[in-house]
Amino acid sequence: MQATGFFLVTSKITKTLTDIAFSEISERIRNINLPTFDAVVAIARGGIVPGALLAFRFQKELFSLQLNYRDDDNKPRFESPRLMGNELSLPEGIKTILLVDDVSVSGKTLDAAKTLLPTYSIITFVLKGKGDFSLFPEVKDCVNWPWKERKQ
Questions:
Q1: What is the CATH number of the domain that holds 132?
Q2: Which of 21, 26, 34, 66 is most exposed by smallest CB count within 10 Å?
Q3: Into how many domains does the chain fold?
Q4: Which three-class secondary structure string do you get for 55-70?
Q5: pLDDT averages per 10-residue partition of the chain, 152 residues
Q6: Which helix (H) or strand (E) holds 52?
Q7: For residue 28, is it within any domain?
Q8: Residue 131, in any domain of the structure
Q9: H helix count then E strand count, the chain
Q10: CA 124 to CA 101: how far, in whole Å?
Q11: Taking the model in full, what pTM does it have?
């Protein structure tokens, strides 16, 4: 069979994904120097694993803040980040917190978290993107984090 005429070719633009090994994340966390802080506040869900690693490394208490802005495909699901759980109440004596998320693209989630924690001095930490500290500042692509289920 021979085809004649014009063919419409469509293509799907796919994002480049970068794999980062858990061992590389652990190594960088082991070797990072951060200013003094009293506790780690991880933004759930993305900040839970890196927050736990940092809390363990620096021997600090770990707390979580249930904020959500993006869906599992990394698309904004709300106009602005929303508090999905209870407000965070930290023990007395905590003055400076390390606020942790996996990725910060626009900074909206970190900014929303800061407004919920107005009485604390805040140091922001992300694995990739915009923060006071970024573990992988050289990575510009989307990342396959080793703890996330991969879509087939």
A1: 3.40.50.2020
A2: 21
A3: 1
A4: HHHHCCEEEEEEEECE
A5: 40 67 96 98 93 98 84 66 76 97 90 94 97 96 84 54
A6: helix 48-58
A7: no
A8: yes
A9: 3, 8
A10: 8
A11: 0.82
